[in-house]
Amino acid sequence: DDDDDEDEDDDFGDFATPATTMKTVTTPVMRDEPPPTTTTTTTGEGEKGRVESNRRDDAASTGSRPRDRGMDFALLEPPATTFAGLAIDDDEPKWMRQAWKDVSADALDDAAKMELGKKMEHVPEELRRVGAKAGGEMFVTFGTASVKDFVFNWAAAAKKLSLEPIFVGALDEEMHTLCVKAGIPSMLLTGRSVLDNRDQEFITQKSKTFKKMGTVKTKFIQDLLELGIAPILSDADVVWMRDPRELFNNGTYAYADVLISSDCIDTVNDRADNANCRNVNFNTGIVHIRPTEPAKAFVEKWKQKVATSEIAWMRDQPALNLLVREGSPALAPAVAVPDDKRGLPGYRSIVFAANSTIRMGVLPIAQFSNGHTFFVQEHHLYHPEDGEPYAVHTTYQYGDSARYAYGKRQRLRQHGLWYADDDTDYWKPKKYLTISTKGSQMKFNGSRAIGMENDAYLTAITRHFEEDRLRRTTIRNGFALAKALGRIFVLPPARCYCDKIWNTLAGCRALGAETAHLPYACPMDHIYNLEGLHDLGVDFREAGFLEDMRLKGNVREDVIHVKIGAKDDKNMADVVIERGFSASDAVEALESYNDHGVIMIDQLDEGSFCGFDDKQKDEAFDTAINNALNHDQYFCFNEAYNKQGRPRSGGGKDGKEYEPRVVERHCGIAEGEQSRLATRGVVTEVLKDPITCSCEWAYKLPKALADTRCAAQSRDEDDRTRTGLGDIE
How far apart, in whole angstroms, are the C-alpha atoms of residue 601 and residue 234? Predict the structure, then answer.
């Protein structure tokens, strides 16, 4: 699930340890078999189903204890719980009440519910062949044929790590057939018929089929648990980078029924392992469930909640998030660890969840990275002390469509994590055109990095817009020149000084990610319409392609350097082309270099390239490229909003109810209206006194090729003027 939620300031607060009976554990546990069972007793009204834990307490006396790696933490008994589900009453804000009333007709019919209620009576042959057995773990993903590329990428990453066993729950016959042909263990899932006649081929969150898909997935999870198998589940858009089983089976995590990833982007609080990240969604993109009785009961409730709810957004992930937060107290601590070891490997918190019926651990976001911590914050690069990532999930991205998950694929390609093309023509050497990094980025005075001081956001957004103006023109010209030369365009590295997120920014960073490094390497979905790029008809490659060792041959050494400038300004360049050149000028100048692998242009800024020598061709290309470059994005700043007095925040001077729509909160008018009024790509609103709107808008399209004068054309016109011919009709 790819929700990029707008995290507000509500907080569950740090957990106070209740007065409970402690069970001290002095050694970690590495489980080679299923944990001891958990008994469930009824202890009185209001505590029905309370879990009395006797599991794993004798673990220290088993033969599975590791050598001299003693740990000191204490397991806690579950608190007395007031059982309650989550609901919205009339006291809640209007926007929240409306969300809960937003119903759809995609609850399952009786026949589908009956199909999903059947139990798996025996181990299917497909599972036997991969050695799945009670007490074992298995890496599992799901997919329809529409996401086959991601399923293959998931399997390829697992193969590189020798992760075994792996298994694909096929959601349609085509996916199953493809897996069989590729030698990937798979089976058709029970209940998949609910996905027949789906409303779109590539299933997105907005599709009615997305929710039904969740019921089929939870049914298979339930089947595996009944067979005693502990699935390590991940979405197909997850890439495994390390084997997580040692982490899962040691320390506090060994005592959890469920381990799950998080949408939190606050790496500081997550590292501290306090409660601040638990107000953010848990993400089912990576989840490990053990076959304990409490876990089985929880998965049954999870499946039923998705299957029976008529609320439009009640998919598998929102349903899980609601269930685990039921009860009072919600998410109470299930383990006590020494303060000086909190957050360290082996000492991560686990909590009581779902009316205190299960123990749940939340995986560290530095190592089980979401799409923000990995691709935007690049936490693994700037904070290697937090450990290498085990996996990355391509959430928090903006480039997918009903046609294809372009944004996810491009992010993985940019970071060398897309393996589905390894055996295709993608890496066979061809003819490429690229632009130097120096020529495609601005040079700014002062420190390159952006801090968090009061006006740092002004520096950040100013640089962001200035660099984008250069980049958008450079990229347009690069695609045009690649088209003229019949070459593949390799994009230069892009640098962003302001985050893209549909929420308020602080220091040009997403709230919760205030320590993120700026600038960062822009994901392509942050700045382009990726579907438009693929419709352009000009083949392209991501930044970093030429440095990737998968590129075969010596093409990266076979480079012709081209300088754009005065003819007497050759320097170390192989070719010099005068500014204001046309496509035909470039073809003529580079004709003798056609056999070389890479042509690198030093710069292609405004005025360097003037088009195709044909107004109609220029106009046609302008229309096509603008579809790719026309990328709508607002940037709303917390610092400027504070100067306004925080109107429509629920706590501002106007006293009005909180407004969840970001632009309306910052500017007082609807997003669409402000978009039409805004001056794109120029800092204007936050410089006004007083500030009436604390948002700026991007991006500005480059000057059209059809309106760009060529150098030869300008010289001809100058000659005509000097000779007096310019006045003759």
Answer: 42
The pTM for the full model equals 0.85
Rounded Cα distance, 235 and 592, in Å: 49
Strand duo 598-601 + 633-637: pairing: unpaired
Distance CA 411, CA 394 (A): 8
DSSP state letter for 261: E
For 309-444, where are the alpha helices, taking DSSP H only?
316-324, 371-375, 379-382, 406-414, 437-440
CA gap 263, 510 in Å, rounded: 13
Q: How many CB atoms lie within 10 A of CB 279?
A: 16
Cis? peptide before 519, omega within 30° of 0? yes
Q: Assign 482 to helix, strand or coil.
A: helix
The gap from C-alpha 695 to its chain's centroid, in whole angstroms, comes to 24
Closest CA to 38 of 29, 28, 49, 27: 49
For the record, the structure tokens of 301 come out as 């409730």
Residue 642: partners with Cβ closer than 8 Å, 6 or more residues away: none
Q: Which among 16-25, 89-98, 707-716 has the top mean pLDDT?
A: 707-716
pLDDT, one tens digit per residue, over 332-388 is 999 999 999 999 999 999 999 999 999 999 999 999 999 999 999 999 999 999 999
Lowest mean pLDDT among 27-31, 418-422, 663-667: 27-31
Pairwise CA distance, residues 23 & 336, whole Å = 10
pLDDT value of residue 212: 67
Query: Quick check: helix, strand or coil at residue 563?
Result: strand
Do 265 and 6 meet the contact criterion of CB atoms below 8 Å apart?
no
**DSSP labels for 92-119?**
S-HHHHHHHH-B-S-S--HHHHHHHH--
Classify strands 368-369 and 391-393 as parallel, antiparallel or unpaired: parallel
C-alpha–C-alpha distance, residues 613 and 585, integer Å:
9
CB 637 within 8 A of CB 504: yes
Tell me the average pLDDT across 485-493.
98
3-state secondary structure of 123: coil
Band of pLDDT at residue 95, cut at 50, 70 and 90: low
Strands (DSSP E) found in 144-276: 166-170, 186-188, 230-234, 238-240, 258-262
